[in-house]
Amino acid sequence: MSKSALEVVKGFADWSPWVPFTAARETAPRLPGVYLAREGVAGDLVYVGMAGERSGTGIRGRLARYASGKAIASGLGEAAFDRALADPGWLRARLAEAEGDQSKRATQWGRLSFERADLHICWSTTDSAASAAALEAGVLAALREHDSLWNRR
Questions:
Q1: Cβ neighbours for 107, distance < 8 A, ≥ 6 positions apart
Q2: How many CB atoms lie within 10 A of CB 118?
Q3: Chain-centre distance for alpha carbon 120
Q4: What is the C-alpha to C-alpha distance for residues 31 and 28, in angstroms, rounded to an integer?
Q5: How far is CA 143 from CA 7, 10, 47, 120, in A?
Q6: What does the DSSP assignment read for 100-121?
């Protein structure tokens, strides 16, 4: 039997405890590193991402960007939005809003797609963007056989 994606990544770094996305965007460190996402409290790993030193905001800044809905065209934001667009119930709700003259902006749709995904996040910090990129690459390489990942390949 093959290992789950979570079992595979466990030995790559010291990972923080899992927290709901809503908490992670406010409590994650302002340091470079790698973050992992899973659907639900006990779901399997669905995404591996990294954050550099961008304006001193690190992982927290990257997650805050997703939370704002402004990153629906990149990384985890795009992956969560793609899954929301594939959910007929979610789309019907957005259509009903538009038909009721309550249409929302794209950033609002981005935020709603994250609510739908029920993501939980953990992370590991690194000393630089370069070491975060190396850790992310190593984790993704080890997970190349796992089809559950939302990351583009």
A1: 68, 69, 70, 72
A2: 14
A3: 8
A4: 9
A5: 10, 12, 10, 19
A6: TT----HHHHHHHHHHHHTEEE
**Mind listing the pLDDT tens digit for each residue in 41-73?**
999 899 999 999 777 789 999 999 898 888 888
Query: Does the pTM exceed 0.85?
Result: yes
- C-alpha distances (whole Å) from 139 to each of 45, 56, 131, 144 are 12, 24, 12, 9
Residue keyed to tokens 């190593």: 138
The residue type found at 148 is S
Residue 122, number of CB atoms within 10 A of its CB: 20
In the block, residue with structure tokens 């302002």: 30
